[in-house]
TrEMBL record:
SUPFAM superfamilies: Nucleotidyltransferase substrate binding subunit/domain
Annotated HEPN domain residues: 11-118
Name of this chain's protein: HEPN domain protein
Entry-linked InterPro entries: HEPN_dom
Residues forming coiled coils: none
Alphabetical list of Pfam families matching this protein: HEPN
Gene3D superfamilies per the UniProt record, alphabetical: Nucleotidyltransferases domain 2
Species of origin: Winmispira thermophila (strain ATCC 49972 / DSM 6192 / RI 19.B1)
SMART domains listed in its UniProt record: HEPN
Amino acid sequence: MNEQVEKWLLKAEHDLIVARNETKIEGAPTDVICFHCQQAVEKYLKAFLTHHQVDMRRTHNIAELLTLCIERDRDFEELKKRRIYELTIYAVQVRYPDDFYIPSPEETAEALTMAEYTRAFVMRKLS
């Protein structure tokens, strides 16, 4: 595996570790957890695309990244069916006060489930 792919994976793992650990805190900051779930998914997809030498612009848009992954491997339709693209709102919306809102515990649990599933899916594809 090339060094750039490994870097994307390491950063994704770090985001997922933070998300997992934050869920253990009473009164956990759901906005922070969802942000890190979005970041992890984004970086796992970028690792896959980098592995396949796909040119991509700088973006936080998971739907856009997922489309590029599907063009390379139709199995990624599974992630589309699971609607992981919905995590994109956590890239910006929960980070700034203008569009700010606090995700519910249920939304947060779903975001973590999506991130964990994406991790397992991409790691299988890269192995």
